[in-house]
Amino acid sequence: MHPREHLHKQLERGTGWTTVRERERAREKMRPTPMDYFAELEDQGTTVAMDVDDVDPLEIFGGEGVLSVDNKLADADFFNAFEDDFDDADIN
Amino acid sequence: MGSIENLVTQIQGLSGSVDDIAHLHNILKIADESLHAEPSALSSVLDQVDPAKHSLGYLYFLEAFTFGPVSKEQALTLIPILARFINCCDAQQIRFAPDKFVSVCKRFKDHVLLIESPLRGVSPMRAAVRKLQTTSEHLTTLHPDFLLLCILSKSYNIGLSVLEDDIFDVDQPRDLFLYCYYGGMICIGQKRFRKALELLHNVVTAPMNTINAIAVEAYKKYILVSLIHYGQFSTSLPKYASSAAQRNLKNFCQPYIELATTYSSGKIAEFKVYVDTNREKFDNDKNLGLVKQVVSSMYKHNIQRLTQTYLTLSLQDIANTVQLGSPKEAEMHVLQMIQDGEIFATINQKDGMVRFLEDPEQYKTCQMIERIDSSIQRIMTLSRKLNAMDELMSYDPLYLSKVLFPQVGRERQRFDFDDFDTVPQKFPI
């Protein structure tokens, strides 16, 4: 049986199924992967989005290209017509 | 008109128990269209209905009556009627028709802005927020409007009272963006920079599919406040920031990024030249006042740096090192910093020497222990809440479908064969 089919069956039965996160945690405890040893070398400044919202890196090189900028701003009509009230020189 | 009179009778008779109000709501929903057809007939009817006792009925009448554009003169007439209703209406009743209540409140906000009197809207809008909220953790669509009026009327203190609530339930994403942006501005106005950074950070890192104008403006202020409060700024966004923000935010805020880079050199003269060169850009963004605070903060952070090296220093030396005009100016800066608790020092005015001291806080007073205990309690509550949210999410079908099954067309598999346990969990290895 394909692993995914097995998972479907487990979901239907509601037995023995745990969250992906729980299994990842258990796996990390039981069997550290070689990737763990490289964790410290990871650049702290790397801008990588969280997994769930992650954009496939291949997408960057397709479509608009690496250096394209999305110039369309969402909610551009939001109210921001305030006076500049943060000049301390105005406070006596 | 006869049907309206009947409706008034029903409203007066069915505004008692919860069951009656639920029944009344069904009647009002059916009659809503006819109310909008004759808005002018409703002005006399409003006097026959008590906004406090018959809030739901009054709401339907008021919403229909105030529908459509108004002139300044009409706004002046409507504002006291709307304010009275918002202040005295029954929260339980208006929650049967939250959309109508929101419409009425937003119109009220628009009217006070039309007559350029935002202060008149602050107190009713605060009441409206509290009535619409199901709990103090609930962010409503009225929160940003309330904060907007606070900023325009410079009632920063009143806005702060709402910002102290921890928010966990959000109706619309746009509400969260605006709430955090306006909230950040209110905290800046009160010089609560740490809280301002927290709120602005939420805007910048909130999930967004395309780059959001509110996030762009928030990022500009975030950079400036970060320099004022910490004396430094990192261009790296946290990993949980959206890819839209990671890719595009800096491009929209380039002058501010360069301002931060110039600031990091510590050279005040060079920094001031940069500010003067780009004054117009900051002024157009209405951020020039904050930029001036950044300039002042440079002196402050440079003086703070001195405390890490010297035990005593003359005012003349401080003035020279920090590039102030005179020892007197240095003395004013040091005095202000001592007053604000930013450094611990004494000034000997006889010989013009400043003696830097250690932080006298021993962290063993009753007040400090209470503060630490309060923080621990808050963190424990937050931890319980996060665990509950995590558990809820793990059962969410949308989340499961996205995580478990790869999307069509994506080449990368989320999981390989090893990710699928063939042995049920009740038989752990």
TrEMBL record, chain A:
Listed Basic and acidic residues bias regions: 20-31
Q: Which domain of life is it from?
A: Eukaryota
- Which portions of the sequence form the region Disordered? 1-33
- The organism encoding this protein is Eucalyptus globulus (Tasmanian blue gum)
Report the protein name in the record: Small acidic protein 1
TrEMBL record, chain B:
SUPFAM superfamilies in the record: Winged helix' DNA-binding domain
Protein name (Swiss-Prot/TrEMBL): COP9 signalosome complex subunit 3
UniProt similarity note? Belongs to the CSN3 family.
- The scientific name of the source species is Eucalyptus globulus (Tasmanian blue gum)
What's an example GO cellular component term for this entry? cytoplasm
Q: Which residues form the PCI domain?
A: 192-361
Tell me which Gene3D superfamilies the record gives. Answer: 1.25.40.570
Q: Where in the cell is it found?
A: Cytoplasm; Nucleus
